[in-house]
Amino acid sequence: MTTTAKTILADALECSVDDILDTSARGMHPKWDSLAHVRLMLILESEYNFVINNDNFETVNTVSDIQSAIEEQTNG
Amino acid sequence: MSIAQDFFNIVQRYGNRIAVDDPESGLITYKDFAGLVAYFANHYRQLGDAPRILIHLPQGTLAYAAMMGSVVSGATYAPVNVRSPDARLDMILDQFLPDLVVSSSGLNTNLPILKPDITARCNEFTIAPSLASSYVIFTSGSTGVPKGVEITRPAHARYVKKFIKYSGIIPEDRVSQHPAISFDASVSDIYGALTSGATLIPFGSNVDKMFPARKIKSAMISVWNSTSSVIDLMENSGELEPDSMPDLVVFNSCGEALLPRHVLALKKAAPNVQIYNTYGPTETTVAITYSSINNDDLICIKHPSLPLGDTAAGTRIYLIDSDGKVSDLEGEIVIAGEQLAVGYWNNPEQTKKSFRTVDIGQGPERVYFTGDWAKKENGKLFFIERIDHQVKVNGYRIELEEVAKAVSDAAKSAAVAVQLDNKIYAVVEGKVFNKSDIQDILQTTAKTLDRYAQPFDIVCVDSFPKTENDKVDLAAIKIEVRRQIDN
Predict the structure, then answer these.
(1) Is the pLDDT of residue B473 over 90?
(2) β-pairing, B135-139 with B396-399?
(3) Does the complex come out with an ipTM higher than 0.95?
(4) At a CB cut-off of 8 Å and minimum separation 6, what does B378 contact?
(5) Backbone angles phi, psi at B353, to 5 degrees
(6) What digits encode the pLDDT tens for the residues B147-162?
(7) Do strands B18-22 and B26-29 pair parallel, antiparallel, or not at all (unpaired)?
(8) Which of B233, B443, B455 sits opposite A38 (nearest CB)?
(9) CB B174: neighbour CB atoms within 10 A?
(10) What Cα–Cα distance (Å) separates residue B156 from each residue in A17, B161, B227, B246, B450?
């Protein structure tokens, strides 16, 4: 269910999908630093019309947050 | 010459102009901003002579008024980053021992706290002459305890005057306030704008900080002061479209090496921009050299960075070679002159080590040994490397020993830290950690290290390679880190 979110996060963190766990979170995963977070936001923006703002920049912090953001965009 | 007087003159002349355009609290005119400054100043004055004020506020109108209030009232302030871990803030509080903490969020302390109100105003604007230091900026310390660099009022005022003069700030300018207020680069923005009648625009949110090109465009920024690695960030995120920042006329590079690729990328997006490269440690008040970069400078790519530029009036640079002699060719940068700090706050031992009185040929004078090695070619000065364990990440000074200590404490084993590809890696001896262990260690180090100082990853080795002198061989460790991350 979270495969898409994990793939996107792996792209952003420039690591293998195998390195992304269901529990991976910003500040906990060693590669999820500020630059990786910017890459994540840009992927969501370019591929899912996600509008980056101060709220979601701070609150998309887990695999399930990414999945929710994607679903919100795709479900309209 | 005083910042307080310059600010007062600007308020008299440009009272109805916008002082700060803050996305959080809105626009505030110079007249209203002066009322807020006076509110802080009067509050500080009630604490006695030259009180110490710790400013724990997010970037924005309140923080700027709290600082200017300190300057006006004769107090000494220390600005800290509200995002710093509690343990680090505690270490700063223990050293600075403030008479008052200005904070709008729940800082955990028993010290008196002022929770300021953005609507507060006071009509009595009185400038108090003061011999007290102007501010104390805390930087990374190799022992794991932050060092407070104490800057005098004259040094502060002289630097700001020079910055305004060379960057040519005018009241019509819209000046970014990008670096955190705990980083001395912010001194240029805050006082450069507010003593020129220009409008200051805080880049307070993470979105503004991480996507600055969007903010520069939407806020019509004309003067932008930042570290050069932010240009890499913009380039990597595809934000430097041609002509995308038409209003930008001045970029002031500070805090880290400016490279030709930064200049070329920025010129493409901001064709009207004049780029300045500056150099200077916190200990000599923000910057002591500046250089207007032109196309000829871009040819000098054999050096790690572009020329540092000429020393500002009233300051001097000497190069001291490895034999301790003054050199015209290369050596450690040693700085003298009117911008030198008093020293490290409440730390005479470290002060004595870095600030010394020496005779370099013009009689005894007090100088600061920077730890930066430089070369001179055709009269131009080029930064080459650090001669100790200090590195910079996105302009922030980090002592690798501080990182190593935090990791060693958390991992309960010997550790060193190295920098590779602009990232910090910690290397732990004699342990094998899985991903979960590493997450646990990083969670522990996050309690004491600022986010920018956190290791990017942790690498394990059986034992540290040693040099012939039985010292840890950092070059060999870097090779091992490279091997492990490439696998």
Answers:
(1) no
(2) unpaired
(3) no
(4) none
(5) -70, -40
(6) 999 999 999 999 999 9
(7) antiparallel
(8) B233
(9) 20
(10) 51, 9, 20, 32, 26
